[in-house]
Amino acid sequence: MSCNSCSTGKDGQPRGCKNNGTCGTDGCNKLTVFDWLSNMALPNGERPFEYVEVRFKNSRKEFFKNTENLSLSIGDIVATQAQSGHDIGMVTLTGELVRVQMKRKKVDFTKEELPKIYRKATQKDIDIWQKCRDREEEIKKRSREIAIILKLQMKISDVEFQGDGSKATFYYTAEERVDFRQLIKDMAKAFGIRIEMRQIGYRQEAQRLGGIGSCGRELCCSTWLTDFRSVSTSAARYQQLSLNPQKLAGQCGKLKCCLNYELDVYLDALKDFPSQDTKLYTEKGLAFCQKTDIFKEKLWFSYKDEPANWHVLSKDQVIEILEKNKKKEKVASLEAYAADNIDEEKVVFENVVGQDSLTRFDKPKKSNKRNRNRNRKKNNRNRNRNKKNAS
Length: 391
Fold this sequence. Notes:
Blueprint: E1 51-55, E2 61-65, E3 77-81, E4 86-93, H1 96-104, E5 117-120, H2 123-149, E6 155-161, E7 167-173, H3 181-191, E8 194-199, H4 202-209, H5 220-223, H6 233-238, H7 245-248, H8 263-269, E9 279-281, E10 286-293, E11 298-303, E12 310-314, H9 315-326, H10 335-338, H11 369-390
Parallel strand pairs: 7-8
Antiparallel strand pairs: 1-2, 1-4, 3-4, 3-5, 6-7, 9-10, 10-11, 11-12
Helix pairs in contact: 2-3
């Protein structure tokens, strides 16, 4: 579901709010929770839940206590409590679903130290907030220049102003620990605000920047993925993928999150599947596993003395041979089992309507040398005949 800002403009190009999955108008935000209780009234005598969910820039969402019993609805701009001053955010959820969300995120709503909502934002609050948001790109560029001058091994990826404009949070990525004390002093002097530095991971940076993945679609982290699970190289090994960093790494430089999507299916298929280092003992010799196909349930084996000659066996056949090997029995050879697995080639294309063959480009071109020789002789005869007639 999209909002009005995602519609097509006058020139036929999609407009969009350009917030990389975190819609500024909250119509198609990936963090938006559908309020399925919005059209239901509370029972008699029940008071509405006093906490509300408020979203700030990017993916930051927090819970605040509505101590003033304000009539709030989704989309309202409110002034909330901060460590110093106040912040401006948008209400994204109210009612009983906030209780469920707080329980899901393990936030104890019985504590008194949770922040509260001051008031609905006035036009003056919104003007100051928007003015600060307009300064973020300029300040981000200037802060990067200061970091380069100080020769700090870090990258400032985003800036977030507090609603009252008294503080700015700088999000950065770095391989190692960075001493940015001098950087904070220089930026505080240049911008005249309080500075807070917050380190984020490379996946969070890719989420904020957005982009197109190798699949041709928008990045999962910037459209719908909200939690980042660790991805290890074992996920690629289980799926028999080539351990090529250029193919397995995403735009963040880390392993792609999509490696975990089908991992559970592979793990279930591998539960009763022979391992890759399986050895079979036959009278003809020792055989090693060369290749496996998990979903076709086939394995390819070759003898130790004939590594180039592979024999395909089914999973059940391999398990049967292993059971015999456990009893110290050897089978005659792999060929006897592999002969049962020869499949006849099936016709996948039939020329029933006069269409050309799908493999016509695979056939080598026939040589036209004979035709060229025939044409050359014919031309020579015509030339000689013309000379005789001219004489």
